[in-house]
Hints:
By secondary structure, this protein is of the alpha/beta class. Helix content is 45%, strand content 10%. It has helices spanning 7-19, 25-30, 34-39, 57-67, 71-80, 113-118, 125-136, 163-180, 190-197, 203-206, 230-235, 240-257; strands at 96-98, 104-108, 146-149, 184-188, 211-213, 222-227. Strands 1-3-2-4-6-5 form a 6-stranded mixed β-sheet, sandwiched between helices. Helix 4 (57-67) runs parallel beside helix 8. Bound molecules: uracil. Uracil binds at residues 108-112, 115, 121-122, 126-127, 149, 231.
Amino acid sequence: xxxxxxxxxxxxxxxFWRSAGVDMDEAEAVYAAPAAAAHAPVPKxxxxxxxxxxxxxxxxxxxxxxxxxxxxxxxEAVAGFDGCALKATARNTVFADGxxxxxxxxxxxxxxxxxxxxxxxxxxxxxxxxxxxxxxIGLSRQSNxxxxxxxxxxxxxxxxxxxxxxxxCLPFAERLVxxxxxxxxxxxxxxxxxxxxxxxxxVLKLRGRRLAYTREGLAAPVNAIVMxxxxxxLRQPQQKRLAWLDLLAIETWLDELGVxxxxxx
Length: 265
Ligand code: URA
């Protein structure tokens, strides 16, 4: 019989060792029980400690996100949210594309020009590369992956989103994870990794490792892995070797998690 784990105590111990500078990522992944994550009830996010003012955009985003009980409702909540200034200059809200009942969720950074026009994430050059990469490991937005971003409106001139814009949109991305409870959360690029994992390590350190996405109020940690962003690979093609290793690491984990895939093209 499996020994029973006191997850609260385990998490506190991991946090203690992490604060002492010890790398605890592999250990966290061990207790990121996928089975529990797949069946636990969807929790309402609890308010955080350093609460922003009740009328702040972040608080409004949290309230709206918490009120969404389905992914469709969350999509509507994002579309109706006026608290992020980026919406004023964007053509479309870009929320998510793919299979809403998928076991895999991929989160990137922010829409660019093509995504802004289409109202869908990852449809430009980097999106086409992403689709080809995912197809190599049997993932397709037509059937078994949902693709979203941490920001839902194109930053003007494709500039980096500000920390304020990221914080304002984050409750929606967090709610998406809570509603979907994916067996695997793939974070592509630095911005998504930092926002979702709440850590500042370089993406070259984070990529390809078995990590755990945790949030207060989430019944169980969610398996998470970081991969290099396809736009970075278009700029730095010599890094495709690392991207290939990331894909292999994801494929191995998907196999272990029993995630259904489509046959390769
Ligand atoms: N880059 C991203 O991170 N997301 C998109 O939707 C498009 C490009």
